[in-house]
Design brief:
Length: 797
């Protein structure tokens, strides 16, 4: 917020250097961004009056002006400006004058004619032309309408170009500081002075107001007040007011609009002025808009409203967007003769929503969004009427039309001052404690050293709990005065939990077999569930919606990690990465009453020339093996719409679902703009963790040699290798050390409906060297069981 120091001094006596003051404000919590001094570098520039203008004898685009500069002195100045006329009051840089930026002016000749100085534009005086009227833009700065423009007077004094402006960076929780008086309160307590509030007294005429105000939505509009001014004379506001608005970053418009902006900057209370002649019904009704209602705002843009937006109406038509912007149909114009001043308190969240949905942000909405004290609305209207009377631009009617259905409740905090002082760690006495709060305009009732009752002033909307009192005491006492102290407490070793070690082992194993770890956001788009063809009745469609999402694409908490993994695979493929194998250990979220359940999941995704279903299956098995997860079953899955039919499997453990993996369905691949086969799987790590045996058992090196036998079996195509391996394990009689599938074959030598499955079985005994008879006994038992249970026969060709 831009704060002109000269204006600030109206409310508090600042008798120290401006830079020192700005630094002190930073130390008490009102951070200073910059300090800018107007008028720096301006010397020997005065107010002048153009007496005569003649054409330049040697240049068509130049004129020769005779300019009075005070004390009866006249100088001749040549200029090419097109906006000057005889009798104009202008700033004149005389011989040897200096302007901002180091520019020096001296007497010279322009095309043979003497020029004893220069008439200045607003920019040349360091004034942004955004703030000046149209007549002075791109030309000489015309001062005809300004008061106090005495010929020969130093321009810095005449235009008030000797002020400093401090730019304060305000935090969102301090809306009370978004005003001159709010900053003055902070300044007063910072430098140990008393604040001087404006004395508001409205001089009313005998005519009484005849107007009604009705609020239909007291939750959205807590208070609405209106006063009427008649016999209005629209014109420019006095220069002192314009100058204050300019230095605070607001462009002057006319006296009525400038008054509303002045009060907004002074008190932080947004006001609006309606042309009363356009409010023909004699009443104001505050209500929500009609869904789809069209409304043209002051910026001449037609906007479409919805039924959650609050509008100000005259009972028949909308005339303003509450807290945001007025309507073009009630704008103050040069023909306005009667004005209705509005001062209201609107709901912050509703104002924020309206502003966001319409893409319309104003100085008013910026204040209402952060909160405006209800009690300030009437003060603002009274102050505006007082300024109308001071400027002589209207006649204020007696009385105020007001509806006040929702009173602002007083906030009372009961805190323990001794505890606060102890925790701050500074030698603050109880008297100092109370004085700091009273200087901040809190009302204190000190009951004991252990209890104080604090009544919070209406404008401090941020004070809610004892922690807020800590901050007030510490910042005003001075953070720099709080002594440093060593940290105290018991030091404990930081170690990882067993589950953290479990997750680390999974990541270590995954990276060791060639997978790359990825990290993705936990919030996704609801459309991602459609992209993976998730059934409409799937439990994973019961997701958690974010209250304030960054956008539609990040509006829900994920219930599956597969869409995130597919996005990563698409990103790699779109960048011409020929092969990608990735994994992520992350969370999915299941809603329940209270806080949602966070589930740990592992998601693996891959594509590439050497990647297939069995590469993915082997990766999962390797990870399971490294963490001691055994006894699971891999069962074919044909009804999962995310995966290719017949190329998908489900992992089960004692009847519990562990996860699914396989080749992504062609439509899913197409939804992610991928052009090759993609394999992915998702596993419930919480279930795996609960049922894995991570005990490390030492086995000595074998003393006796091993022997192996190869078998090639003819089995039906619908027989799974897992069934064969179960029989091998069950009949090994403690001698089968390992077995390995090394070939699966179908072809011309194999009958239709059959396949050849070849295993290498390794036998070893812990007690002796095995003989052929020992091995044959077990080996034949295995073959017999395979034939009996699976109709498996040894292949002979």
């Amino acid at each position: 917020m831009l704060v002109p120091v000269k204006w600030l001094k109206d409310y508090v006596d600042i008798d120290i250097d401006t830079v020192e003051f700005a630094d002190m404000m930073t130390m008490t919590g009102t951070k200073t961004e910059t300090v800018e001094f107007f008028g720096e570098g301006i010397e020997n520039v005065v107010v002048g009056k153009i007496l005569k203008i003649d054409s330049h004898p040697n240049a068509e685009k130049l004129v020769v002006c005779q300019v009075e500069v005070g004390e009866g002195k006249t100088v001749q100045i040549c200029t090419g400006a097109k906006n000057v006329s005889e009798g104009d009051i202008v700033p004149v840089a005389l011989d040897k004058a200096k302007l901002p930026g180091g520019i020096k002016i001296k007497t010279s000749k322009l095309r043979g004619e003497l020029s004893e100085g220069m008439m200045c534009s607003a920019n040349e005086l360091g004034i942004n032309e955004f703030y000046v009227d149209d007549k002075s833009k791109d030309g000489i700065y015309l001062l005809n309408d300004f008061d106090g423009m005495e010929i020969g007077k130093d321009i810095k004094e005449a235009l008030g170009l000797y002020d400093a402006v401090i730019d304060f960076e305000l935090t969102a929780n301090r809306p009370d500081c978004r005003s001159m008086i709010g900053i003055a309160r902070e300044a007063a307590v910072t430098i140990g002075k008393k604040i001087k509030y404006p004395e508001i007294e409205v001089k009313e005429c005998d005519e009484e107001i005849d107007f009604d105000v009705k609020i239909e939505n007291p939750d959205l509009c807590m208070r609405y007040g209106a006063r009427i001014v008649k016999d209005v004379k629209i014109g420019p506001s006095p220069y002192w007011m314009q100058r204050r608005l300019i230095e605070a970053g607001v462009r002057p418009i006319n006296n009525i609009v400038d008054i509303t902006n002045f009060v907004m900057l002074e008190y932080g209370q947004p006001l609006h002025a309606f042309d009363l002649n356009q409010v023909k019904t004699g009443k104001i009704v505050v209500k929500t808009a009609e869904n789809g209602e069209k409304f043209t705002t002051l910026d001449n843009v037609e906007r479409t409203l919805d039924d959650k937006m609050l509008v100000i109406t005259d009972g028949e038509k909308s005339i303003a967007l509450a807290g945001v912007m007025g309507g073009l149909n009630s704008e103050i114009t040069d023909e306005t003769t009667a004005v209705l001043f509005e001062g209201a308190a609107f709901n912050a969240e509703n104002t924020r929503r309206t502003s966001k949905v319409l893409g319309l942000r104003t100085e008013a909405s910026g204040r209402y969004e952060k909160g405006v004290a209800t009690e300030t609305s009437k003060t603002g209207v009274e102050r505006a009427c007082q300024l109308v009377e001071m400027l002589g631009c209207g006649r204020v009617l007696k009385g105020i039309a007001e509806d006040y259905p929702t009173k602002q409740e007083k906030v009372v905090l009961n805190v323990n001052p001794s505890r606060i002082i102890k925790n701050i760690g500074a030698p603050i006495t109880l008297d100092e404690f109370v004085k700091i709060l009273e200087d901040l305009e809190f009302k204190c009732n000190l009951k004991s050293a252990e209890e104080i009752e604090i009544e919070v002033p209406d404008f401090r909307l941020d004070m809610e709990q004892e922690a807020d009192v800590y901050e007030e005491i510490a910042r005003i006492y001075g953070f720099e005065k709080i002594p440093s102290a060593q940290l105290e407490g018991n030091v404990t070793a930081g170690v990882k939990t067993d589950k953290q070690k479990f997750m680390d082992k999974i990541k270590e194993t995954a990276t060791s077999i060639g997978l790359y770890e990825i990290l993705t956001y936990s919030f996704v788009s609801p459309k991602s569930l459609d992209r993976i063809k998730l059934p409409l009745d799937s439990a994973k469609r019961n997701y958690i919606k974010l209250l304030n999402p960054l956008g539609e694409d990040t509006s829900i908490m994920r219930t599956t990690m597969m869409p995130s993994t597919l996005n990563v695979l698409y990103t790699n493929a779109s960048r011409k990465v020929e092969q990608a194998l990735v994994f992520e250990c992350g969370h999915t979220f299941t809603p329940q009453e209270g806080l949602p359940i966070e589930n740990n999941h592992l998601c693996i995704g891959m594509y590439g020339k050497d990647v297939d279903f069995f590469v993915l299956k082997g990766s999962i098995e390797k990870i399971f093996s490294s963490i001691g997860f055994e006894g699971y079953e891999i069962i074919p899955e044909t009804n999962n719409s995310t995966f290719h039919p017949g190329r998908c499997a489900t992992i089960m453990y004692k009847g519990q679902y562990v996860g699914t993996f396989g080749e992504a369905h062609p439509e899913v691949i197409e939804n992610y703009n991928l052009t090759q086969r993609v394999y992915l799987g998702e596993i419930d790590l919480d279930l795996v963790y609960d049922n894995s045996d991570r005990t490390i058992i030492y086995n000595p090196l074998p003393k006796y040699p091993s022997t192996s036998r190869d078998i090639a079996l003819l089995v039906k195509k619908d027989v799974y290798v897992g069934q064969i391996e179960e029989i091998i394990e069950a009949n090994g009689q403690g001698l089968v050390e390992s077995y390995k599938l090394f070939d699966v074959y179908t072809g011309s030598q194999i009958a239709d409906g059959y396949k050849s499955v070849a295993y290498s079985i390794t036998y070893r005994s812990k007690d002796k060297t095995l003989t052929d008879e020992d091995v044959a006994k077990v080996h034949n038992k295995i073959l017999s069981e395979l034939e009996t249970k699976l109709d498996a026969k040894l292949r002979t060709n």
